[in-house]
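Pilot study result, target chain (363 residues):
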Amino acid sequence: MGRTYPDPELVHKAAALLDKAQRPVIMAGTAVWWCDAAEALRELAERIQAPVFLNGAGRGCLPPTHPLFFTSARRKALEGADTILAIGTRMDFRLNHGQPPLIPAAANVIWFDLASEDIGANRGVAAGLAGDVGVSMQQVAEATRQLNQEEWLAYIRTEERRGLERDSASMNSDAVPIHPMRFCREIRDFIDEDTTVVGDGGDIVSYGGRVINVSKPGYWLDAGPMGCLGTGTGFAMAAQIARPGQKVLILHGDGAFGLNGMEFESMVRQNLPVVSIIGNDGAWGQIKHPQRALIGHATAAELTPGIRYDKMVEALGGYGELVERPGDIRPALERAFASGLPACTNVLIDPEKPYSRSTNVAV
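Predicted structure:
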């Protein structure tokens, strides 16, 4: 299949902007995976010595062991950047629609995407490269001199360390109900590099994206920028068929589970041992908390606390278990996968720990 090439003049314009950049940042997303461009992403990052942050299915396109891979310093990096490379990702609610304070008004945005109509949405660009993002990255890297950004990277490494230190208390919390960060840390510590993680939820998947890293392209799947909840079970079944013998784990919100949880019957019938772990806070949390902040109360955003989704999966022929204490999460996951059945690990998390973001995404 042929690949579409960017406009050569815009390649040189992007290279000229990068030659002058002192604080570049790469924000890479789903199109990097679609274009099989993980290697091109690594080469470009190393050429311009920019910190790399990943979202959507871009997760895994740079391994967490790479020295230019960062997670916790994202806000500080974007707020301080003079040049932002948006590669295969949209300037949507995840990036404050491309606006300050997260995205500086004076920053040069170099945008790489498959479709020209997606470039510049919500935020203008200094250079927009439409075409295969792998080809575009490769050509820009070849046109750009080797950069040295050690002072900038030292600042980002310091902020990354500080961010991880700030998160440490919540990731190690023994509180009951369980803190969502501890919930996600237990998942992070349990999975291996061959585990496919499917995100299907609101706040809990935002927490997951902050804590859980995957090591290979295509091993993080989620609903994308439109946030189409309920897709997780279908994604997971497809992943299990494509990767027999490997772990497939759905990170579910309880609201999202309720949309297509009956697909566990399909999994039982087709012998697909997918495991769902639910962050059960008894609410549509991504709606409930912004409503409270804006109008003082929540409307149509509450679910019944403590619903036994695990019992439902058991009734469909799978394995289910309820977890109420943080130290029991990992053993429960081990039993779920050892069962060889489609399984639900239903974890009761703290309903008063909303994910903090710069944009209210739903009210």
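One observation from the pilot: Residues 79 and 104 are 6 Å apart (CA to CA). A full batch analysis is planned for the follow-on phase.
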